[in-house]
Amino acid sequence: MPLITKISQQKRDSERYNIFLDDQYAFSVHETVLVKFELTKGMELDDWSKDEIVYSDQIEKAFNRALHFLSFRMRSEMEVKKKLLEKEYGEAVVLEAIVKLKRLGFLNDEAFSEALVRTEKNSTLKGPRAIQQSLYKKGIPKELQTQALEEYTMEDQMANAMKLAEKTIRSNNSQPPAQVKQKIQNTLARKGFSYQQISEVLSNVTIERDEEEWSDITSAFGEKAWRRYQSKYSGSDLRQRVKQSMYQKGIPLSQIDQFIEQKRNEEDGY
Q1: Residue 264: CA atoms inside 13 Å, Cβ hemisphere, count?
Q2: What's the order of all strands across the beta sheet hosting 16-21?
Q3: Cα–Cα distance for residue pair 132/136, rounded to 1 Å
Q4: pTM given for the model
Q5: Nearby residues of 149 by Cβ (< 8 Å), 6 or more positions away
Q6: FRET partner for 25 with CA separation of 20 to 30 A, picked from 92, 148, 209, 213?
Q7: Alpha-carbon dihedral of residues 119, 120, 121, 126, nearest 10 degrees?
Q8: Digit-coded pLDDT (tens) for 211-254
Q9: How does pLDDT run across 73-96, given as a tens digit for each residue?
Q10: Residue 6 burial class via C-beta count within 10 angstroms: exposed 0-12, middle 13-18, buried 19 and up
Q11: How distant, in Å, are the alpha carbons of 81, 216, 251 from that of 245?
């Protein structure tokens, strides 16, 4: 039966030790495995014992790899499992490492889910549907998704929806109100808010433009439409196309008529 003839600490990794059997290097182990199996010089190792030690060391390697992965931010169990499998650890080794991580409190899908909900509702202002999709992608079970989202109250959801609406209004102050409302709707839908929530927000926002702002908006949209159509149309056809385009953008008919009249006067040389 092979005999341990030498145990030496590795220079590059002080937590790992080289094991020599019958004066020949056989394998290396982490210090926790060394202690667990009470490996000492002069100990005999049969093949079964050697395989058990190597298997335990693989688990320790996977465990430490996972700890490094978790040191950057919290991860879900699925994320850790996927990462370890990518590093070519065996399925059984990965599952054992995950059991140890969970037992020691390094891996907890419930705590992870709660943290993800807090982060996404406070930092990104996402709606419940988008957050639930994020949880799903992280491999969180349905019941934990529901439990974590209970902390995201309807009041908080509507407050975030209104914040997004107000942000959209501020960043589109040169757009017609109808266009701004469409952008609010698109933003809230993309962020994962429900149709009912979007409707409530739109019914509560007020977007006003004074006379000078309307003049600037009308001129900007009108000139853009005029340039787009004047290569294909002329006269009344051109004016009708431009008028339709401006109306679709939410510009009032009174403003459109003023612009069209101005263009007609320019054509007539006034």
Answers
A1: 12
A2: 4-9, 16-21, 24-30
A3: 6
A4: 0.79
A5: 117, 128, 131, 132, 135
A6: 92
A7: 170
A8: 888 888 999 989 899 999 988 888 888 889 999 998 998 888 98
A9: 999 999 999 999 999 999 999 999
A10: middle
A11: 54, 16, 9
How far is the C-alpha of 207 from the C-alpha of 6, rounded, in Å?
80
Strands 16-21 and 4-9: antiparallel
What is d(CA 7, CA 33) in angstroms, rounded to the nearest whole number? 13
Give the span between the Cα atoms of 226 and 16, in whole angstroms: 75
State how far the alpha carbon of 74 is from the alpha carbons of 83, 91, 114, 144, in Å.
13, 22, 11, 16
DSSP H/E element including 133: helix 128-137
Owner of token pair 């988008």 = 130
With contact defined as beta carbons under 8 Å apart, do 149 and 128 qualify?
yes
Has residue 31 got a pLDDT over 80? yes
Helix, strand counts (H, E) of the chain: 13, 3
Report whether 121 contacts 156 (CB < 8 A). yes
- Amino acid identity, position 100: K
What span, in angstroms and rounded, lies between the C-alpha atoms of 166 and 172?
10
Q: Looking at residue 67, what is its pLDDT? A: 96
The CA radius of gyration of the chain, in Å to the nearest whole number, is 33
